[in-house]
Amino acid sequence: MLIRVHIKPAIGNIKLAKLHPHHLQKLYNDKIENGRHDGRGGLSARTVELIHIVLHSALSQAIKEGLVVRNVSEATKRPRREKKEMRVLTEEQTRLQAVLNTERLGTAFLVDLGTGMRCGELLALKWENVDLNEGVIRVQQSLTRIRVEDSSLKTELRFQPLKTVKSRRSIPIPQSVIAALKSHKSRQNQEKLKAGAAYNDLGLVFCTELGQPIDPRNLTRTFNRLLERAGIPKATLHSMRHSYATRLLEMNEHPKVVQELMGHSQISMTLDTYSHVMPEIKQAAAAKLDDLLITKSPPAEEGHK
């Protein structure tokens, strides 16, 4: 996919002998700035690094086969996106929850706050993967906007399997979220009856009134309306995911557990992303250790008679 989607369109028309470092450097810079197919900015630094690894490996093989004399990828510098300050909604969460019932999809945001699911995972969630009796959500797929495989720049929404084993996970659901999902399912059943044959039942938990997948951009618009009603400064849908992880860590949940619930491939990703919470956790650990070390002084021995 990296070759077909990102590499070939950018440098596929350049002959190997004519390939120079500046060609690859431009490729990396363009991808970090505006490489996403949905038009929502650039690729992650990790994805750009993977593109570099593919190119470096291919050029190394070309050297072995005598096609080129040097690996031009070694003369490039992979750009890093400036790390934006992470926004969490811990203080504003109560105000947000108070206005959720003003929107048809209010339950979707409550589920997000209670599970930390990614937007694409939330919109691809099916009832068959929600166990309301056991209180568990099984995350299996994601709704993703991808470019159509033709000469146009058109995109379309597709359900796709998750990228890593860690992303496919089970998340326990808080009781308040279970109750909200039950009410949501009842309302959805009423919508099915009203729509009749026009309803396209894909089994989605969150969908349009006719059963179709919801465009993530429309969910973002709904979220922005809710923020405005609650008097909360602008934030992204992803901020609810950050809020979920931050609350868990603030409650002294083990980072390994948070990693598994968030679907991070490496615990280092969890620790790096939520490093702002770590000092508080360390201080709490030191305080607990202090309680163990502090003992009452033994009573003074009485003099011998």
Automatic annotation (TrEMBL):
Residue span, Tyr recombinase domain: 84-287
Coiled coil stretches, renumbered: none
Entry keyword set: DNA integration, DNA recombination, DNA-binding
CDD domains (UniProt xref): INT_ICEBs1_C_like (cd01189)
DNA-binding as UniProt keyword: yes
BP-aspect Gene Ontology terms: DNA integration; DNA recombination
GO terms of molecular function: DNA binding
InterPro entries, sorted: DNA_brk_join_enz, Integrase-like_cat_sf, Integrase_catalytic, Integrase_recombinase_N, Integrase_SAM-like_N, Tyrosine_recombinase_XerCD
Keyword DNA-binding attributed: yes
Family: Belongs to the 'phage' integrase family.
PANTHER family: PHAGE INTEGRASE-RELATED, PROPHAGE INTEGRASE INTD-RELATED
Entry function: Site-specific tyrosine recombinase, which acts by catalyzing the cutting and rejoining of the recombining DNA molecules.
Protein name: Phage integrase
